[in-house]
Design a protein that fits this description.
By secondary structure, the protein is of the alpha/beta class. It has helices at 9-15, 39-53, 87-97, 109-115, 117-126, 166-169, 175-180, 196-214, 229-232, 236-250, 260-263, and strands at residues 59-63, 78-81, 102-108, 131-136, 185-192, 219-225, 254-258. The protein has a single domain (32-263), classed as 3-Layer(aba) Sandwich (Rossmann fold). Helix content is 38%, strand content 16%. Strands 2-1-3-4-6-5-7 form a seven-stranded mixed β-sheet, with helices on both faces. Helix 2 (39-53) packs across helix 8 and helix 4 (109-115) crosses helix 5. The protein is globular and about 50 Å long. The model has no long low-confidence stretch (mean pLDDT 93).
Length: 266
């Protein structure tokens, strides 16, 4: 009988079928994300879709400034770093000069919905054939938890210690609804990753977004409601519940635009 510490992957394979393993598109490395952060779940969903579609060798990932600034360490695909908010612009250049590539941006709410608002709006309006993955955790996670464009009314942050006052700070930006109203956007969806059901729905949306690009239909975007336990000052479990009870009512989950051509891909 082998010592417990000496059990190998080969021994596990002999005893049954493997039902869970690291996607090839996901690098084998340690994470820098905080405990309970759901960036890791979203990374995995994207990596699984890349593997399933067989596009790893032709995928280019455009990394943002924000919590996911080191995303190129986690994916075994070509990647480039964009200036803060400029990922759609860089993705536009990459896709237009290399139309055979699959170009993805991965952006947080500060990156996409604040400093980069003009970039994503015009990319969507032009119908750039790229896929945008937008992570909304309602706070500036990288820089100590200040109010973000998606911070909820009344939500306490380091820059709104008494809560977001809409009379002073305005209302949270509903980016999925805004992008869906632009003619060049072909597929726009909002998903979450707070339980098994929503994770499965998110995975399907990622697949549809990538298929939309492969079909050459135009811009696709998936918004993810994501947790930030550190800056929300919650346990990881409580943070997932907070997404469901507080974020989802303000940012309803669903498909916001599905072009006729995209429906055939789902």
């Amino acid at each position: 009988m082998a010592d417990r510490n000496e059990i190998t992957q080969e021994m596990v394979l002999e005893q049954g079928n493997v039902v869970y393993q690291r996607p090839e598109a996901l690098a084998e490395t340690l994470t820098h994300y905080c405990p309970g952060c759901t960036h890791g779940i979203i990374h995995r969903l994207i990596a699984e879709a890349i593997d399933e579609l067989g596009i790893r060798e032709k995928t280019i990932l455009v990394a943002p400034v924000g919590c996911a600034v080191l995303i190129y360490n986690y994916f075994d695909v070509d990647a480039v770093e964009a200036a803060h908010g400029r990922a759609p612009a860089m993705a536009t250049g990459l896709k237009r000069t290399q139309p055979d590539k699959v170009v993805l941006t991965y952006q947080g709410d500060g990156d996409l919905a604040a400093i980069g608002t003009a970039e994503i709006l015009h990319a969507a309006n032009r119908g750039e054939n790229i896929s945008v993955f937008f992570v909304n955790n309602a706070v500036y996670g990288m820089t100590s938890g200040q109010m973000a464009p998606t911070t909820l009314p009344g939500q306490v942050t380091t820059s709104t210690p008494t809560g977001r006052d809409v009379k002073v700070h305005g209302y949270p930006m509903r980016m999925a609804e805004i992008i869906a109203g632009l003619p060049g956007a072909c597929y726009v969806a909002r998903r979450a990753v707070y339980d098994v059901r929503t994770v499965r729905q998110a995975r399907k949306a990622v697949m549809t977004a990538l298929k939309t690009q492969l079909a050459g239909l135009g811009l696709s975007m998936v918004e993810f409601l994501s947790s930030c336990p550190t800056n929300w000052h919650m346990t990881p479990v409580d943070a997932l519940t907070w997404i469901k009870d507080n974020m989802a009512p303000y940012f309803p989950l669903g498909d916001y635009k599905v072009a006729d051509e995209v429906q055939a891909l789902q």
